[in-house]
Queue: 2 jobs
Job 1
Amino acid sequence: MPTERYFKKVPPFPSDVPVAKLPRLSYAKLLARDEAESVALFNASRGSGFFLVDFTTCPEGQKFLEHAERMFEINEQVNALEQDELMKYAYRPPHHLFGYKHVGNLKIEDGRPDRCEFYNIGQDDITGVSDPLPNPPLIENSRSEIKTYMEKAYEVLSLVCSHLETQLRLPQGTLVALQPQTRPSGTALRMLRYLPQPEQDRQTSLLGHTDIGSLTLLFNVLGGLQLLSPGADPKDNNSWVYAQPQPGCAIVNLGDAMVEWSAGILRSNMHRVTFAPGEQSKSTRYSLAYLIRPFGQAPMKRLAGGESLIPPLEEGEEDNKMTASEWESHKAVAIKAGRDNARSRGGREIKLDGKSDIVSGFTVGSVGASHTKKRNNCVLFADIYLLVESIIDAASSAAYGMMIHYTGNETGQIPGKIPNTWWEGGAMFMALIEYWYYTGDTTYNSEVSTGMQWQAGDGDYMPSNYSSYIGNDDQMFWGLAAMTAAELNFPEVSDGYSWLSLAQGVYNTQIERWDSEDCGGGMRWQIWNYESGFTMKNSISNGGLFQLAARLARYTNNDTYADWAEKIWDWSTTQLLVDTSTWAVADSVSISNNCSEPDHTRWTYNYGAYLMGAAYMYNYTNDSSTWLTPVNGLMNSTLSTFASATYNNTLTDIQCETSETCDNNEIIFKGLTAGWLAFTALIVPSTYTTIMPALKISAQSAAEACTGYSNNTCGVRWSIKSWDGWIGLEESMSTTNVFWANLIPYNMTSGPVTSTTGGNSTSNPTAGTDDSTGTSDTPRPITAGDRAGAGFITALFAGSVISGVYWLITSE
Ligand SMILES: O=C(O)CCC(=O)C(=O)O
Ligand SMILES: [Fe+2]
C-alpha cells in the first residue's frame, strides 16, 4: 500500500498545510555507501531525528515495498476483525505488551481517551526467540511472511545504523550489536488503524511521544503524523507540523536509545498522530511501524572512546549505568525538569576536525513561507507505553527498599518472621503478592511462598512459636494475605496448604472466638487474657474478619460466610465502631463499660478494612443497594478524613503523622488502605472515578517522599511531598502498596477472581477446626518486645528512580 498506486486511491495531501521538510534519502545510494547520502542521513539524525528513505531507487528497495504492501493488507484485515475476537489477544500492560490495543486504552494530553488502535506483533514471537504468543489465525497463518518483513525491515535499519556508525566514527557493527534479532527484546511490528473522526469532534489520536527504542521504520499513506517543531511548546497546536507521507518512501525516526548511546548527538523527536489533513480526514488511516528496541541486557551508556565523536564524560555528566530494559522503565524520570539527563535529548554539537558543528531541527514549509526553528532541547513526554513501566518501576524500587530489610530468607533465619513483629510478615506478603500480580515481577515469589507456608502453623496461622502472643488482628493479616493469594491466583505450593484453605483456617478459628458474652458479640482484640487488649473489642479485628468472611463468600459462593459477614457488620454498626450516620470508624470499644464509648481515634486501615468488606458484600450480593450506601459512605469518609486538602489530598494517618509519632505498625496502615481502596474501585465500578484520582495523588506525593539519600529511600509523610528523614521496611511497604494500586487502570479486566471465574485454590471448609491453639485460655509467658518498634536501618539501594511517577501522574 505505501506505493504510488495506493496513494492514488485516497485524496491528495493538501498543499496548504505546513509540513516538516524531511530529507529524502535514496536507498540505492545508502546501499552504495554514497558519502553525501551518508552525511545527509547523519545530519537528519542529529537535526530532527526524522528522514525519508526512498525505496523506489533500486530493485532491492522495490522488493521491500512489495513486502510492506503485504503487511498493509494484513494490517487492514487484522484491524477489521471483530472487537471480541481482537480482545482475546488484548495487549495488557504491564503483563503483555504485545497483541491488540483497543481505541481509548491510552490517553491523550488532556486526559481524554485516544483514537488509535493497533496490533503489536512481537519480533521474538515471530522469529522463535521466545515461546510463541497467541495471535488471531490471520496472523498465525502469515507468520512466515511477517518474519520475512521483519528481517527486511531489520536489514534496512541495520544499514541506517551502519551509516551512523561511520559518521560517528564508531567501529562498524557497534550499534547493530546492541539490537540483534536473535536476542530477546521488545522489538515489534505495530499495525495501526485510525478511523476517520467526525468533523465536529476531532482530537489528537495518539499522544505526543518519543519512541523509546533505537529506530522506527514507518509506512503510511494518509497524513496524520505530526512532529513537534524544535523548541516549540507542545501545548500549542501550531507547534505541530505534519510529516507528509511520500509514495515508495518510509519515514525513519530515531528513538531515545540512540540519544543515550550517542551522548545526545543524535536526536529523538516528539511526534504524535492527529486526524489527516483536508479531504484525507474522511478516510481510514493505516500505518505500519517496525520499532526496534535494544536487547534487554544491552548497556545504555554512551559509546565514547577510541576514534568516536561521542564525547567522553564531562565534569558533572554521568554515565547511564542501566541496561536497556531497566532504562526503558526509568526513562520517564529524565523528563523532570532540571535533571541532568533531561538537559540534552539530542542535537548536541560535535567537534568535526577541531571545529564545532551543530545542526538545526527541520525546516517547516508552507505556502509562501519557509523558516527554520531552533532545535528542540526539551523532551516533555516520554514514550506513551512507558507510563505503565514507570509506575512498575516505582513499585519495584519500593518493593526492593522493603525487601532489603527482610532477612527471613537468609541461612539460619526464620522464613516469614520480621524481627520484633509477627503480624507485619502477613502484611508484607500481601503487598508482595499484589505487587507481583500488577507488575509481573516474580523476584520475591519464592520468599512469599516459603514464608507464607512456614508461618501457617496447622493451616490457620497460629504457629506455635508465636501463638502465645498473637492477637486476632495479627492472625487476620496472614489470613487476608492468603485470601489475596487465592484471589490473584498466586502460584500454589504443591506440598503446602492451599491459599484458600489458609484463609478458611483463619476464618474458622476466629469465628470460634466470637464473644457473645460481652457487649452482645464481637471479636476481642487479643486472644489471651494476659494481654492488655483482651478487654477491648477493636475495629481492625472485627473489620478484618468481616472483610475475610465477605471475601470467602464471594470466592466460594457460600452464604454461610456472607451470613457471618452480616453478623459482624451488624454488631460493629450497633456498637458504633462504624457509625452509619457519619461513617466515622472508631478504633475500639471497651468491655469495661459495655462497649458503650467508641473512641475517637481515627486510623486509615480501620476505615479501609470495613470499606473493603462492604465492597465485597456489594459485589457478592449482585450489586445490592443495601451495600452501596456503606461503600459510598466509608469511601467518602476515608478520603475526607485522611486525604483532605489539609494533607495535600494525600493519604495521611492523621493520628500520628503530623506529630511524627507513628510507630512501625502505624506506618503500614495507609498503604494497606490504599490497596483496599484500589480493590474497591475494581469490584464496585461506580467508585472507580472517585478512588483512582485520589490514589494517583497519593502515589505522586509518595514518589516525592521517596527521595531520601538520593537512592529512593521512602519516608512516612507523603503529604509533605518530600522525604521526611524516615526509613524502614514499613515505609517502603506502604509505598509499594500505593504504587501497585495505581496499576489497576492498566489491568481492569482482571482482579480478584472467584472459584467460578478462574480461581483454582483448593477449598477446605473445615480448615483449622481441629487446631486447639488459640482457643485455650491458659496463660502462657509472653515473649518480650514483640510490639516494640524495630530500629531503623539505613538502606542503600541504587539505580531506580521513583520520582518518575511524579511526572507520569502529572502528565496524564
Ligand atoms: O501511526 C503513525 O504514523 C505513528 C505511530 C507511532 O508513532 C508509534 O507507534 O510510535
Ligand atoms: Fe512513535
Job 2
Amino acid sequence: MNMQKKSQLPLNDGNANKKRKALCSKETLVKLLRWHFGYPDFRGMQLDAIQAVLSGKDCFCLMPTGGGKSMCFQIPALAKSGIVLVVCPLIALMENQVMALKEKGIAAEFLSSTKTMDAKTKIHEDLDSGKPSTRLLYVTPELIATPGFMSKLTKVYARGLLNLIAIDEAHCISSWGHDFRPSYRKLSSLRSHLPDVPILALTATAVPKVQKDVVESLQMENPLILKSSFNRPNIYYEVRYKDLLGDVFADLSNTLKSLGDVCAIVYCLERSVCDDLAANLSQSGISCAAYHAGLNNKMRTSVLDDWISARIKVVVATVAFGGGVIDQAKMLCDRAFLVAKGRDSMIVQQCTIINYIFDPLFGIDRKDVRIVCHFNIPKSMESFYQESGRAGRDQLPSRSLLYYGVDDRKRMEFILRKSGSKKLESSGSQEESSKTSLIAFNQMVEYCEGSGCRRKRILESFGEQVTASLCGKTCDACRHPNLVARYLEDLTTACALRQKNGSSRVFITRNGRYHMQNMVSFVTLFNKDIRYGYKDGTLRHLFAQGCAFNSTDAIDRDQLSEFWNRDEVASGSEEDISDSDGNGNEVVNNLTRSKLQSRLGVNEKLAMLQQAEENYYRNNNTHKQSNKVDKNAISDSMREASRQRLQNALKQVQQRLENFKYALHLSC
Ligand SMILES: Nc1ncnc2c1ncn2[C@@H]1O[C@H](COP(=O)(O)OP(=O)(O)OP(=O)(O)O)[C@@H](O)[C@H]1O
C-alpha cells in the first residue's frame, strides 16, 4: 500500500485539560485540516461539531450526503493523543476509510472478523499499552455488544485514553430511520460503561423522530444539535411525465447525448429494465453498462471499475429494492474486491449496509456525476435525496431528472403494501409499517404531481423552512411554471381517460399529438412492446412483451393476455387492430408459434407485421380514402420503427449472449 508518511503536528502532549482551549481554537484546527488533508478551510458546521466534542460536549450532527461528516471525528482524533472510537455499520467501509487515512499517514485501524489473528493481536496490544499509537479505531456495533470488547474499552477509558465515540450513520439506531439496524440499539450501553466520553452522532437522515430517537437511545446529555441545510444548490431538479412522452427511452437517450461525454447514473426499479436500458443506450452510442445484483461478482466489479475509472460514462443501476441478503452479500464482495485492489482514492469512505439495499452505488465516490436519472419513481423522498445527491459532489452544476409514470406509482404502492404484509409475519406491525412507507412514498408522488417548487418540496419534507427565492429557478417548476402546469393538466386528463378506457395506456405527446385526428398513429415504447395510439388517446398493443423479439424466453397465452386490453377486445372497437378482423391476434399467434417452433428472421416478422397492417387498412379503407396519404406516411414510419425495434432487440439478444459467454469464460 502506498503509505504516505507524514509527521505529526506538535499540538499535544497528553495534558488535554490544560491545552483544551488552545486545541479548540479555530486556528489550530484549520492548521490540522490543512496539514493532514490539504483543505483550506472547514465546510458548513464541521468546525462547530469539532469544537463541541473537543470541549467534551455531546453533539448530534446532521449533514447532507457528501457534506464531510467524517472530518468531524477525524480532526478531533488528530488534535489529542488517545483514541477516537468510530462505530461504522459496514466492514468494507471501515476498510475504506482506514486505508484512506493510512495513506495520509494517520494511525487508523479497524477491528473485524476479516482481520488475521496476528493483526488483531497487534491492535489489542496497542490498546493495552499505556500510550497507544492508534488514533482512530473503527469497529462495528456488533463488536461493541460483545462483553470482551466492552471490557477492553473500559480499560482504555479508565486510563483516560478514550477521547470520543463517533457513531456514524446514527440513524441506524432509530426504527424511524430508513435503514434501521437492530444491533445499533445496543450502543445505548456505551454511556453507562463510559460515562464521560463525549458522543458524536452523525447522520444524513433528517426526520425529526430519528433525531429524538438517536439522542434518547444513546443517552446523550444536552447535546449540541447541528443541522446543515439539505439544499443542494448545484443540482437542477426536473420531472418528466412518462404518460405524456411518446418514447421515454428515446427521451432519456437524447437527454444523455445532449449532455455530451458526461458521467451519469440511471436508476431503475427492476433488473430487466436495467439490462434493457443499458443495452439500448449502448446501441444508441452511449458508453454504458448495467449494474445490479443479478450479474455475477466479476461482471459487477468490472462494471464498477470501468465506471469509476471513466471507461464507461453511464451506469444503469437498480435501486435493488427488496434485494435479499444474497444480493447485499454480492454487492459487498464487489466493494471488498475494489478495496483490495486499492482503488481507494476513487471510492468514497463511507457507506451503510442498508444503502446497498436501496442504492448499490452508495459509497462510490465519483464526484463528477453530472446527471442522475430516475427511470422509476423512488420509494421515498429520503431515497430520492440520497440517490439524486450522487450528482455534483464536486459542487459543480448538475441535474436530477425523474421520469414519473402513473403505472410506476401504482406498482410502487403495491410493493410497499406487500412489503408491509411481509413484515407482519415477523413483527406483527403490518399496518403501521405499510402506512409509514406509503406516507413516505406519498411525499414523492406529491413531488412529481405537484406544481410548486421541487427544491422547496424536498427541503420541506426534511422539515426545513424555505423562502420562495431560495430556488432561483433551479428546478423545472420554477423555471417553466406554465409548461409544468400544462403537463400536469395533461396528466390529469390522461389519467381520467385511462380510467374511462380500462387498462389502456394513454398516449399524449408534448406536441399535442393526442389531439390528432388520424385514426391511428404508431408508437413504439421502450418496454419491448409495440402499441398503436388512437385518436381517443388510448393505446392498443399489437405484440405482447417479448413475444416478437426475445428469442430465448418461453411465452404462454396468459403472459400474452396481460398485454391486451380485454375490455376493448370484448367491446369490438372497429378501430382495434387486435380485434377488428383477427389479424392482430393472428400475428401474435403466428409469432408465438414461431417462437416456440422455429426462430423467424427479422424480415419474416416484419412481413407479418406489414401483412397485418395492410389487411387492417384494406378492411377499413372505404370511408377513409381521404386519409390515405397520412396513413401511408404513418405506415412508412411504422415499418421503419418496427424494423429498428426488431433490429435493436436482436442486437440486445446478441449482447446478452456475449455477456453470457463472458460470464461463462470467467467462471471457467
Ligand atoms: N472542509 C472540507 N473541504 C473540502 N473537502 C472536504 C472537506 N471536508 C470533507 N471534504 C471532502 O468531502 C468528501 C465527502 O466527505 P465525507 O465522505 O466525509 O462526506 P459524508 O458527509 O460522510 O458523505 P456521505 O454521507 O455521502 O458519505 C470527501 O471527499 C472529503 O474528503
